[in-house]
Amino acid sequence: MALLTPEDLEDLLDKLNHNNDIIRKDTGMDIAEICHAIYGTNPGNERVGIIPITAGNGIISTFSASLLAITEYFGMDGFITEHADITGYHEAIKGNADIILMADDHIFIAHNLRNGKIATNHVCTGVVYAEIASQYLHADSKEILVIGMGRVGYAGAEHLVNKGFTVYACDPDRKIMEKAKEELGVIPYNCNGTKKFSMVLEATPNPNTISEGMVAERCLVSTPGIPCGLPEDIGSRDHVDLVMEPLVIGVAAMLYSVL
Ligand code: 1J1
Ligand code: MG
Fold it and tell me: Do 247 and 227 meet the contact criterion of CB atoms below 8 Å apart?
């Protein structure tokens, strides 16, 4: 998975507010309302224990602090354990955490210890960015394009299929595309751009995956991907909107999904 750097997490709340404005303008809902629409939950007074994890590439400075800021932004209580790893886990339980947040380099989970629900960042990120794209008020049809069918894109595509959208998808991995055709019924899309979409979910770790031929005059591109898949010249057009944010939206979805 694409690993965040401390630079990615700078100005997190500024980026959140900027994206919230675009989401509101394009869907009529804010991030909290989008999450509520997906999962049907609302934050109460849950206590979220955030545990730094040293495995693999180790602790990302500002990662735990960012999770705490997000937790509090969405109205929950949180604390970062003083110790990392197993000692931190023990500390979180002793500190009465209802929900645990922790990540190594492969997976990032939210686990609600009261109701047993567990969520992963990649699934929740795919689902919430897909939901944002799917709520586009200026959509010209129920057809939507998913670029990149890794863990995030696949979960997003599945969510869209379940919502009754016609999902076009592309990924260079032929095996993944076969699986997506068979299991989800997505329509393979030739990324040379033969058909234009007003809703796009971009879920690749690559820049400039989107070309002129793929996007309608008026469209919403929803992407957790860093770097951004939307080239600057297309993104700067008046009716091309972009929702892109490195962490908050995905974590909000994780928290709502385990409530
Ligand atoms: C590692 C997180 C790696 C990502 C959303 O506890 C720590 O400080 C580290 N072990 C956290 N995962 O960067 C994912 C999360 C986007 N990328
Ligand atoms: Mg624009």
Answer: no
